[in-house]
Amino acid sequence: MREQPPYLRIADVLRQRIADQEWTPGDRLPSRAQLAQECGVGENVIRRAQELLISLGVLEGRTGSGTYVAEPRERLRMVRSQYREQRGGSPFRADMASLGKRGTWESRTDAKVPAPADIAARLGIAEGDLCVRTAYEFLVDGKPAQVSTSWEPYEITSGTLIVLPEGGPHAGAGVVDRMAEIGITVSHVVEQPEPGQANADEATLLGVQRGALVTRIQRTYYSDDSRPVETADIVIPAATCEIVYEVPVAP
């Protein structure tokens, strides 16, 4: 069995000391040098352990002051469900409204972008075929909650009123409603979540540290003839959001 990296072991030790209330929210941790001596490791191991716990929201780093036990914070519950597509509006806005929160977003769309190889494979088109690409920053009560990049084959929406996801009379309606406007019935969506770490751009947009833990979701919408009509890469910070999947039970 592969041995656990030292920084993960130390992170568990620090987390347990917090759970045992040796340190409570608001308390300043001992210096890295002191912790390194207590734990019998180098200061770099302590630094990596603290950075991990900061990314998880357990600790809080204060420039020029030190590292503190973070105040408990409620994680935003984000439900992924086949029922989340609601007719006549944005699923994200409806989801946040059900939690008593205000869901908004900012977007930037680029039309006629050549599909890179991985996106082309997901959409069932040739590499270099044109797509409409939209980058989103989703906000909850004005604070960043997730980012995503959406790709739609240009040949599907070209010349229609829905060619721009965030422009025209159906702006912000969501993939299902928009596709319905041009006679395409979206029958199902496939999502593949996996853990990851925020890169520099994602960290800036999400207001987290570079390398903070995130959940990446690769999502693809399919029409009733199994044709992919949209695919997206969604990034959600693990420290502030929890993802729950709602699975229907057949009668």
UniProtKB/TrEMBL annotation:
Domain of life, per lineage: Bacteria
The name this protein goes by in its record: GntR family transcriptional regulator
